[in-house]
Amino acid sequence: GKGDITLSFNKPGFSDGNTILQIINSSGQLVKTINTGNKNRVQFRIDVPGVYIARMINGKETIQKRFVVIK
Predict the structure, then answer these.
(1) Alpha-carbon gap, residue 71 to 69, rounded angstroms
(2) Among positive and negative, which fits the CA dihedral 14, 15, 21, 26?
(3) End-to-end Cα, the chain, rounded Å
(4) How many CB atoms lie within 10 A of CB 70?
(5) CA distances from 16 to 4, 12, 35 (A)
(6) d(Cα 23, Cα 40) in Å, to the nearest integer?
(7) Whole-prediction pTM value?
(8) Which strands make up the sheet holding 62-69, listed edge to edge?
(9) How far apart are CA 61 and CA 1, in angstroms?
(10) pLDDT single digits (tens) 1-57
(11) Burial of 23: CB neighbours in 10 Å, binned 0-12, 13-18, 19+
């Protein structure tokens, strides 16, 4: 449905159970925090259109990617 997002990642060290996914809006507000467990694919929902940053943190490394949610 609208706003359903699937994020896949295959970087070593980011599917070992210690990874946190943070979703940050364009105002810099944290809108979601998801513990990814040992999966390399995460599904979540964002209902408000806009530009967001997906920040993945595994304790050693941080990766950020920008994505856009449209109506």
Answers:
(1) 7
(2) positive
(3) 11
(4) 7
(5) 24, 8, 11
(6) 16
(7) 0.85
(8) 30-37, 19-25, 50-57, 62-69
(9) 32
(10) 667 888 887 777 776 778 899 999 999 999 999 988 778 888 999 999 999 999 999
(11) buried
Query: How far apart are the C-alpha atoms of 26 and 66, rounded to whole Å?
Result: 10
Distance (Å, whole) CA 7 – CA 43: 6
Which residue shows structure tokens 């920040």?
55
How are beta strands 4-8 and 41-45 bridged, if at all?
antiparallel
Closest to 35 in 3D by CA, of 59, 60, 2: 59
